[in-house]
Amino acid sequence: MFELATVTPPAQANPDMWNIAEMARNGFFGNILSGFLSIGAAVGQALEDIASALFGGLIANDHPALDKIRDGQLDLVARLDDVSGYGVAYMTYNRYKDRNRWVRMEFDGAVITNPKNASYVDHGIQLAEGTWFIDAQITHDHHVDRLTSRVRIVVSRPDGSVFSIKEAYGEVLTNKYTTLSVRHSVAVPGPGYRVHVWAFYNVGTAVGIYNRLLYRGGTALTHLMVDRINLDATESTVDESVPTTGGSSGNDG
After folding, report:
1. Residue 103, beta-bridge partner list
2. Strand, helix or coil at 206?
3. Nearest alpha-carbon partner for 221 in 107, 91, 133
4. Which of 19, 180, 186, 210 could form a disulfide with 143 if both were Cys (CB 3.0 to 4.6 A apart)?
């Protein structure tokens, strides 16, 4: 049952080392089988239990010989279960938004219906403690050319105050869709922190015909995605007032 006597060692193999390896392998399986037999298990049942433990994953079993295998797998699964976290939302309607002020986007639909360590709250996503990667996309169309459009991820504390911000800039192009994406990594120190997406576009008040901008909904054009990548909750660095170096012309930059 154990021997590979009918197998010819490879030409490059050292015969002595081959025999030593065979003896070690035989001893390994022999010790496992003797563990089952010593507690009264039939050989057939013992082999079935070995297969279940090695290839069947986390199958409950009372044999002491499987304790180390089972415990190690359970510990690993518990660790992965704690780290995982995700959720994806989208905008379910096309909506016109006012000009010259920040307006919040309504991510009111769930792409993933059962988020993990996150929840869909108040047209945004609430996070559990840890380090998260956040990705947002909005799409708008319409109106005159060469106006400024902005999108912002805002992470708020449980009391509603701003904890962290990330922005992206673009243009409003006439008769074309414009897509803005912004990505952010943030470590939240506790539960109850929420992620929302805000947008802003400016247009002169003299152009009264273009008072609003149309933001498109749907899963193809919008999303708010969160993915927990670590349990570390060390607060993220905020450094927005950075110095300017170099000149506006020349080669000294």
Report:
1. 199
2. coil
3. 91
4. 210
